[in-house]
Design goal:
single chain, Clc chloride channel, transmembrane, Cl-channel_core, transmembrane helix, Cl-channel voltage-gated family protein
């Protein structure tokens, strides 16, 4: 019997609607439990003003656990590599093995985020479902990616941006269209489950009207360049700091103890505003509240120390904090509305540090409203280009060159193409010479 193409596609859609909805429900339940637990722990610890004195101890224990018990930890970079190279086959348990570390660090004030465990939970659930259903490698990859995206959706509170973020993280310049439907369905389902379970998300629609007669668009373009340079500096600072820390010839837990002492000292010198998730100051920046001009530099410093010393936690929430406060600083500097540029910086730095301009642009729509979104998208793309061929996630596959003036080998992980850039003549200079002739 001959089967029409439409019948096959119909059953394919039904299949993935069922699978992705199931994964979304499971990820929503598991990730919500983790998020609610983390928020509870942070709320309890915030009742003690000097809890950050425990940072040396928490960093010591985190490094001790990492060295002896948690060697098979599956981080976000490892998940990206597994999806890209191994059809999503994940070694070891799907349960995030460093949840204890992350709880310790966030409870005592370490500057980190909670996105990585949620992505691990989601990818792990997708992998378990693939094992139970005994699917082939192609479908396994889709299912793991569905869970990966759903985990980000639960953290961002933005299902479309969460789905696109998980897909864009895999490769720079490539969108996997065959995964869009299951990723969207899984992310939306996980978001709805999280909302129903009481997880709250940050939304702040901006009352924004662009004023072109005051040179707003020029300031926007300059802002995109500024956020791109911030992304470039942050990526390099984290990577160099981590490499430097690894070269220090002392026992790893002692490094944690020393890093905790340094972070506690910086807190006494400045304030507690740069510890933990920093949601209040980040939200205040977007609402137009006055923040210190160098707040983004302090948060970057706290984050660099935390991530390079503790080797636990996620970088996304600190990136959003740094972007918002850097945007507020830029807005004050150029005489523009600081709240508007805080929102634009919020998504632009994310685009620049993770090579996700589309997801970051959609995030602006979902969090801040459609009015500011086109301008945020322009800034996101500029920041994405300005940050160069680098990323906080070095397992990303580089599929394009960001400029015709740069010769770079594509199809490899970003970590493997660092030294393949060759000098090349700038195209606009060549064009200018020809015009003069």
């Amino acid at each position: 019997m001959r089967v029409n193409e439409e019948v096959v596609l119909f059953f394919t859609v039904l299949k993935w609607l069922f699978i992705s909805s199931l994964i979304g429900c499971l990820v929503g339940l598991a990730a919500s439990g983790f998020i609610l637990f983390i928020h509870f722990v942070i709320e309890q610890s915030n009742q003690y003003q000097h809890v950050f004195y425990l940072l040396p101890l928490s960093f010591f224990i985190a490094n001790l656990l990492s060295q002896f018990l948690l060697k098979k930890h599956v981080g976000t970079d490892a998940l990206i590599a597994a999806i890209n190279k191994n059809y999503g086959k994940i070694e070891g348990s799907f349960i995030p093995t460093k949840v204890v570390n992350i709880v310790l660090i966030l409870a005592t004030g370490g500057s980190a985020g909670k996105e990585s465990p949620c992505a691990q939970i989601g990818a792990g659930i997708g992998s378990v479902c693939a094992n139970l259903l005994r699917v082939d490698d192609i479908d396994r990859r889709k299912m793991v990616l569905c869970g990966f995206c759903a985990g980000f959706s639960c953290v961002f509170g933005a299902p479309l941006a969460g789905a696109l973020f998980g897909i864009e993280l895999l490769a720079v310049g490539v969108i996997l269209y065959d995964v869009l439907l299951p990723a969207f369905v899984a992310s939306i389902t996980a978001f709805q489950v999280s909302s129903a379970l009481g997880v709250t998300f940050f939304y702040y629609p901006l009352h924004f009207v662009p004023t072109f007669e005051e040179g707003f668009f020029i300031r926007l373009l300059a802002g995109g360049i500024f956020f791109g340079l911030c992304a470039y500096a942050l990526i390099n600072a984290i990577q160099y700091s981590t490499a430097f820390t690894n070269r220090i010839p002392i026992w790893r837990p002692w490094k944690g103890l020393l890093g905790g002492v340094i972070l506690a000292g910086l807190t006494l010198l400045f304030s507690r505003d740069y510890l933990g998730l920093g949601l209040n100051l980040m939200e205040g920046s977007i609402k137009g509240a006055t923040v210190l001009g160098y707040a983004f530099l302090l948060k970057a410093l706290f984050t660099i120390i935390t991530l390079s010393i503790s080797r636990s936690g996620s970088v996304i929430t600190p990136v959003l904090f740094i972007g918002a406060t850097a945007g507020s600083f830029f807005g004050h500097t150029v005489g523009a509305d600081p709240g508007t540029f805080a929102a634009i910086g919020f998504v632009s730095l994310l685009a620049g540090t993770t090579n996700t301009p589309i997801a970051s642009s959609i995030l602006a729509i979902e969090l801040f409203g459609a009015a500011v979104a086109p301008y945020a998208a322009v800034s996101c793309v500029i920041a994405f280009l300005m940050s160069g061929h680098r990323s906080l996630y070095t397992s990303q596959i580089l599929s394009i060159s960001k400029s015709r003036a740069i010769t770079i080998e594509t199809g490899k992980q970003i970590s493997d193409v660092r030294n393949t850039i060759k000098n090349s003549e700038l195209w606009f200079m060549d064009w200018f010479k020809k015009r003069r002739e």
